[in-house]
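In the current project phase, we have settled on a layout for protein records. A sample record is reproduced below.
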Amino acid sequence: MSDRQCATDRGRLPSMIELWTWPTPNGQKIHIALEEMGLPYRVIPVDIRKGDQFSSEFLSITPNHRIPAIIDPDGPDGQALTLWESGAILIYLAEKTGCLLPADPVGRLKAIQWLMFQMGGVGPMFGQWNHFSAYAPETIPYAVQRYQNEVLRLHRVLETRLKEADYLAGTEYSIADIATFPWITAITAKLSVLDDYPAVRRWHDRIASRDAVQRGMSVLQDRRQTTPITDAERDVLFGSGQTTSPVT
């Protein structure tokens, strides 16, 4: 499958999708999917350290004040569609283009199964480890170790699967791989684990070599902040700032 095949096979140029996002693993899932599917999109940055996610404009799109979100002017039946939650967006885009989700019922369910594994396990547990190891105002050894153990357990689950299949859904690269890849990339930048999981490493390196993946991972990379988080930013991301009135 070429990077552009999905969209061009639809017979007409798709409408420009609005993508509200930031370069976190959840945002990167959608960046990659849109690049793989060849769908045109316009990036609207949502700087989560500055509190853009609480703006009235963004909250009119998603009440959950979490990126990513999309507005597709060419949704079902030609009607505009607003959608949030990265897993739901991935399923929608796969169904819209007819690719990256196996056509056969068993393959489709396997892909959705592993997508749910990422949404319910990999993302939340990796995120908790990252929070307690990098963002918590004080070190809590129990919390760090608790979530590190879960990170390793989830890697073991992935290793078991990827020893028997090239991709999470089986023989086909799918939205399940796209959902999981940015989280593995993010965790390996901080915790050296892949030497112990060679099948996961092979899978990760295979996906990382794809042109569309590289383009997707580069979206907004120049906007990433590498400076230590401030107390004000911590409050916006994790504290009482999350319950304040929307920014106007």
Q: What stands out?
A: The radius of gyration is 18 Å. The chain has a mean pLDDT of 91. Residues 105-135 form the longest helix (31 residues). The domain at 17-100+225-238 is CATH 3.40.30.10 (Glutaredoxin).
